[in-house]
Amino acid sequence: MAATSNLPPGLEGNYLETSTGGDAAWLPISVKKWYTNAFIVHEAVDPTTPGKILLGYKKRGFGAHLYNGFGGKVEPGETPAQAAARELKEECGVEAPLQHCGSLLFVSQSGPEWAFQIEVYRADEYTGALIETDEMRPQWFSTTPASTDAPAPADQGEEELLPIPYDTMWPDDVYWIPLLLSKTPFIGRADFEIDATGKYSMKRWWFGVPPS
Ligand SMILES: Nc1nc2c([nH]c(=O)n2[C@H]2C[C@H](O)[C@@H](COP(=O)(O)OP(=O)(O)OP(=O)(O)O)O2)c(=O)[nH]1
User: Fold this and answer.
1) pLDDT digits (tens, 9 = 90+) for 22-65
2) What residue segments make up the domains of the chain, in order of their start?
3) What atom of ligand 1 comes closest to residue 87's alpha carbon?
C-alpha cells in the first residue's frame, strides 16, 4: 500500500491508499447530507461453518433492486449512530451493538445536488427476529470467496449461501466491503455519473485505511 498525500477533496487525515481509479476531475461539493449503512457479520468459526454477512435487497426508492446494508438518512437531532440503530430496526426488525467502521463520501454528476456522507457500521451479533419489510428483504451471503476449496455448507447439512453479490450492489462496494469484513477501518470517496436509464457508474474513486 502506498502512503498518500493525494487524498481526494472532502477527505482528511493520515491514510494509506488501498485502491484508486478513474481519471475524471473530482466533482465539486456544495452541500453534504449524512446517511448510515449497517451490516451484521458472523465470523467464520471453522471450514464447515463459514462466515456470513447480512444484506438487504432494496425493494423501492434510492438504490432499488440492489443489495446493501441497512440504512438511510440521519434525521435532525440524531447522531449517525442513533440513525444507524433506528434504520436497522426499521428495515429488518433487529437490534445490534453497532460499531463505526468506515466513512464514505459519494458525489454524483446530474444526480442529487448534495454529496452523500455515509457512516458505515458493523456488528457481529444481533437480537430480535429478522423480518422482511416494505423496504428491504434480508438475506445472508457467504463471506468465503467463491474460489476457495472449502467444503460447501450444503455438504454439511447447512443452508447453502451464495457469495456476496457484488454485481447487484453499488459499484464502489467491492472496494470497501472486504475492509469491513476484516475489521479494518476505512475511508473513501467515489464520484458517479448517471446515465439516461438512471444507472450510476463510477468516474473516479479512492479508498484508504489508517497506517498500521
Ligand atoms: N453500499 C452503498 N450504499 C450506498 C451507496 N450510496 C448510497 O446512498 N448508499 C446507501 C446509504 C443509505 O444507506 C442508502 C440511501 O438512503 P435511503 O435513500 O434509503 O434513505 P432513507 O431510508 O432515509 O430513505 P427514505 O426511506 O426516506 O426513502 O443507500 C453506495 O455507493 N454504496
Assistant:
1) 999 999 998 999 999 999 999 998 888 889 999 999 999 999 99
2) 29-151+160-203
3) 22
pLDDT in tens, 60-108: 999 999 999 999 999 999 999 999 999 999 999 999 999 999 999 999 9
Choosing from 32, 33, 36, 37 the residue with most ligand 1 atoms within 8 A of its CB, the one to mutate for a pocket test is 37
Query: Within the chain, where are the H helices?
Result: 80-92, 173-181
- The fold adopted by the segment(s) 29-151+160-203 is Nucleoside Triphosphate Pyrophosphohydrolase (3.90.79)
Task: With beta carbons less than 8 A apart as the criterion, state whether 192 and 201 touch.
Answer: yes
How far, in Å, CA of 145 to CA of 207, rounded?
21
Q: How far is the CA of 64 from the centre of ligand 1 (A)?
A: 9
The dihedral formed by the CA atoms of 20, 25, 29 and 35, expressed in degrees to the nearest 10: -30
196: helix, strand or coil: coil
Grid cell listed for 60: 423501492
What is d(CA 90, CA 71) in angstroms, rounded to the nearest whole number? 9
Give the ipTM of the model, two decimals please.
0.94
CA 62 – ligand 1 centroid, Å: 6
Residues with CB under 6 A from ligand 1: 35-37, 61-63, 68, 71-73, 106, 116, 118, 170, 172-173
Instruction: Indicate the pTM of the whole model.
Output: 0.92
